[in-house]
């Protein structure tokens, strides 16, 4: 029996397609975050990037997202160790830290919608930045991490 690639390869050894498939499609990385200047504490909000479809949790222009949102952080093999704001459920973070993928992950279930069905995504829980009040502190939530 052959083990799946995510159990035999480190993130930096994965092909581009393998790397992209590790994303569980939760949309949590697309949420606006606030950081307390005094304590460096990070707060997630329920406000999503304007490119995120708030129901499907898919970016509406993934290939060209940096053109529309210049400060969009493109997670890569080169920066995975530097990005400390990924939620605890993030598949990249889990694999980086030597953990396995959760049972609801699409690579485990074979179902691209399993993250949404398991309630592990932002689907139906967020508002687009285009519709949000400018005061993001109103939208602080504790469920993404």
Automatic annotation (TrEMBL):
Coiled-coil blocks: none
InterPro entries referenced in this protein's UniProt entry, alphabetically: Puta_zinc/iron-chelating_dom, UCP006173
Pfam families per record: CxxCxxCC
Similarity comment: Belongs to the UPF0260 family.
Name of the protein in its database record: UPF0260 protein COO20_08735
